[in-house]
């Protein structure tokens, strides 16, 4: 049957993003028909607390450039966008978002929950909200309720600033990208064979000499204590906890080159700019080694308000098993002495993990049963496990053999492979309560700038964030890839580089 139309057809009405279209998938979504529209008259209303106001100002800073609206943040008024801190069963990071015709209310028990709720609100708004110039809108939020809290307390991303050095501003840019997907740990790999990146007053040559180069022989660099404090402050403002890592007893050539006395033969090796691993070791039998460790841990712990300090422990191929065990027996109590909890790569389970220690598993699906069994046994004995399987969530692995950046020693890791697994079932025998969460490491042998980081992280990182946040029942590749495709417009609006995986139905493809 034909329809007669006179004049131009009206433009299709804008429709808001459905509440269940966000990443990570929320725990519970109840849609309703009433849509809220942010307008020139919208206020951001906050409780009379410093934390709620800070989150409100953060939200306003995101919304003002693209909407062109004033969006005053105040404790007065009604309607608009409201941020509420209340006593309730939201946990430390959960929240509820209620949207209707009169406004949007985000309710949480803790400031981190409010912040995570704001990330959900961001994703419910058009992608153009991320731009830094005025956009036409309209700024619609779908009606209904989102009730949400994370599956795991550890949802991390690691950045290797040792192979290539990244500036404070580059780290901040990555922090902002992590925050959008509710990542709550930033693990900084601060020392390796190719560079030492944190100033230590009692051993100054670690940074000034050990930090003077990088892979390929570039100028390297290091963070002053003020730089590091600024990274910690900025991460905290995005509700990320910084976990610093000093890798030892291996991966220590930058330290060994800086101080001859740390070597068993008293001879400092040259600085190293290659990419081989496993050739360096602190001298386990020398007492000065433990003076060095004590000083470094003491100074780094004093700069780090978070609970954790990562001591590495991987690929110590030049350290005998007996020396490795002896070293870890000496070093773990030093971490505790300065008020921190030990995190180590899963090789720590080949020694005796300290009470409360966390082991970060970076093996492959094909890792030997014997090695996996050590991790399982430690977990059954009380050691917590962070899952970072290299052939799933190492963000520096190439997507395909054509990928211009990255490595492939763990295989090729396309987007589906990085998402399509369940952390709770990955290592059979590990008690459910021992799995503390997931972390996506980014090693930097081939990465030199923010565009490189973004290309390797996106689109895989949001999937890792979902593995850490969403329930096992919510993890479904077919549904996820549709939600992931919708994120591309947001990345473009943010000026990010990303990989157009053929596994994802991107718009316009």
Poorly predicted parts? 1-12
Give the end-to-end Cα distance, rounded to a whole number of Å.
Answer: 33 Å
Provide the spatial order of strands within the biggest beta sheet: 14-11-10-19-18-17-16-15
What oligomeric state do the depicted chains represent? single chain
Query: What's the gyration radius in Å?
Result: 24 Å
Q: Count of helical segments? A: 15
Helix content: 25-40%
Give the strand content: 15-25%
Describe it.
With 509 residues, this protein is an alpha/beta fold. Helices cover 30% and strands 16% of the residues. The protein is built from 15 helices and 19 strands. The strands form four sheets. An eight-stranded parallel beta sheet has the order 14-11-10-19-18-17-16-15. Strands 1-9-6-7-5-3-4 form a seven-stranded mixed beta sheet. A hairpin with a 2-residue loop joins strand 12 and strand 13. Helix 7 packs parallel to helix 8. The longest helix has 18 residues. The two termini are 33 Å apart. The N terminus is likely disordered.
């Amino acid at each position: 049957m034909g329809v007669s139309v006179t004049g131009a057809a009206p433009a299709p009405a804008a429709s808001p993003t459905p509440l269940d279209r966000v990443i990570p998938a929320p725990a519970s979504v109840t849609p309703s028909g009433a849509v809220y529209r942010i307008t020139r008259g919208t206020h951001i209303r906050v409780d009379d607390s410093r934390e709620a106001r800070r989150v409100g100002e953060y939200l306003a800073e995101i919304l003002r450039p693209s909407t062109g609206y004033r969006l005053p943040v105040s404790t007065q008024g009604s309607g608009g966008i409201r941020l509420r801190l209340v006593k309730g069963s939201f946990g430390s990071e959960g929240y509820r978002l209620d949207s209707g015709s009169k406004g949007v209310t985000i309710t949480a028990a803790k400031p981190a929950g409010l912040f995570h709720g704001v990330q959900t609100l961001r994703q419910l708004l058009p992608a153009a909200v991320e731009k830094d110039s005025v956009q036409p809108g309209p700024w619609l939020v779908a009606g209904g309720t989102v009730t949400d809290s994370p599956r795991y307390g550890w949802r991390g991303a690691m950045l290797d600033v040792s192979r290539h050095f990244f500036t404070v501003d580059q780290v901040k840019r990555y922090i902002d990208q992590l925050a959008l997907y509710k990542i709550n740990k930033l693990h900084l790999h601060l020392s390796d064979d190719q560079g030492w990146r944190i100033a230590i007053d009692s051993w100054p040559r670690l940074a000034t000499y050990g930090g003077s180069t990088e892979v390929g022989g570039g100028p390297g660099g290091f963070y002053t204590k003020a730089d590091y404090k600024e990274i910690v402050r900025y991460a905290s403002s995005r509700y990320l906890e910084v976990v610093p890592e000093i890798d030892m007893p291996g991966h220590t050539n930058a330290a060994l080159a800086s101080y001859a006395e740390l070597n068993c033969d008293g001879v400092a090796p040259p600085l190293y700019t290659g990419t081989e691993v496993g050739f360096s070791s602190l001298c386990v039998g020398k007492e000065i080694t433990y003076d060095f460790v004590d000083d470094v841990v003491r100074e780094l712990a004093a700069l780090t308000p978070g609970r954790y300090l990562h001591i590495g422990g991987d690929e110590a191929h030049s350290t005998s098993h007996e020396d490795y065990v002896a070293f870890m027996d000496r070093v773990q109590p030093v971490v505790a002495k300065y008020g921190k909890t030990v995190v180590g790569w899963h090789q720590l389970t080949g020694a005796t993990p300290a009470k409360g220690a966390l082991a970060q598993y970076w093996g492959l699906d094909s890792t030997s049963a014997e090695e996996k069994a050590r991790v399982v046994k430690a977990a059954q004995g009380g050691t917590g496990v962070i899952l970072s399987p290299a052939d799933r969530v190492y963000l520096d692995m190439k997507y395909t053999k054509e990928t211009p950046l990255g490595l492939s020693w763990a295989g090729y890791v396309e987007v589906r492979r990085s998402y399509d697994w369940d952390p709770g079932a990955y290592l059979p025998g590990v008690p459910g309560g021992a799995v503390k969460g997931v972390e996506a490491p980014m090693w930097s042998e081939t990465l030199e700038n923010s565009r490189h980081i973004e290309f390797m992280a996106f689109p895989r990182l949001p999937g890792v964030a979902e593995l850490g946040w969403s329930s096992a029942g919510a993890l479904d590749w077919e549904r996820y890839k549709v939600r992931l495709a919708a994120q591309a417009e947001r990345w473009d609006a943010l000026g990010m580089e990303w990989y157009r995986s053929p596994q994802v139905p991107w718009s316009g493809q």
